[in-house]
Amino acid sequence: MTSLWRAGAVMLAGAVLALVSGRAATAQGTGIMAGVVDARQAHEDYMLKCQGCHRPDGSGDDRTAPPMRDTVARFLGVPGGRAFLGRVPGVATTNLDDRRLTNLLNWTLYRFDPAHVPAGFAPYTPEEIGRLRADPIRLDRVETRARLVAAFPQR
Amino acid sequence: MIGFDKLAERLTRSVARQSSRRSLLALLGAGITGAAAFPVLPVARAAGHAGGPAHQPVTSGNPQDPGDRTSCDYWRYCAIDGFLCTCCGGSVNACPPGTEMSPITWIGTCTNPADNRAYIISYNDCCGVSSCGQCLCNRNEGDRPQVRPQSNNDYNWCIGAQSSVYNCSTAVIVGLALDKPL
Hints:
Number of strands of chain B: 8
Order of helices and strands of chain A: HHHHHHHH
Largest sheet of chain A: none
CATH architecture of the largest domain in chain B: Sandwich
CATH architecture of the largest domain in chain A: Orthogonal Bundle
CATH class of the largest domain in chain B: Mainly Beta
Oligomer: heterodimer
Number of strands of chain A: 0
CATH topology of the largest domain in chain A: Cytochrome Bc1 Complex, Chain D, domain 2
CATH superfamily of the largest domain in chain B: Methylamine/Aralkylamine dehydrogenase light chain
């Protein structure tokens, strides 16, 4: 009798879990990511071009590749930050064409830092990325980043 | 029992009568010399090394993941450069005991012969113990020159680990590449 009860409890728990995860999946699915043409392609490109150093969850660390999680979209809120994201070497020198790189960069903002994407955010366009990456930041990337991070509004 | 006694005594005495202590030394000396020369003879020594595998094959048992994981020809090793953890006390997905898997890794794609699809492979290095020295592989497919550090496998990818001492490399599947790129 007890084992039957236990089995019932497990089944119930399973059903609740399935319901909850199903709802989470729907919520994620309905989120519209402006400027992202193909989210699966963006995820694949992230795995191939970024994840090796920035980690699967974008956490990074300050010793190697800087963190993007809960940070990357904050650059959009400071002067020069939008251009920085297109000119930073990891973005500018990646061997992807402008279209795929734009898809990837816009996706990265929504994927790792949705809370800080500004309300009226105009997504990057391939033309803008093509212009920004033609003038990549070189040796002063660490100082440039530190200067922009220092300008982040405190909250 | 008396019979045994008599037999042993007779044998001993006959040996003592017929041999000197010096002849025993000569016999032993000849034996030692002969024993030293004997292993040099080509008695099927080849079977111990070149003919046979240095490691027992390790397979997944899954037809979707074919091949011997101790061989450089295993499909996931298409861009590897280093020692196989499978030969070093770890596995294709796990580091040997006593080492730490680096969080920073070199990532590429390899084609699985079972379904001819491209899988995204992460070559996480295992770090903290000196080089394993077993099963060195260097296939480098898709390897880029060092001016593209994120796609070059000659760098030491132990940079993110506690210790930068390299031990061996794993080949972890992290995803499936799309059939048609954007």
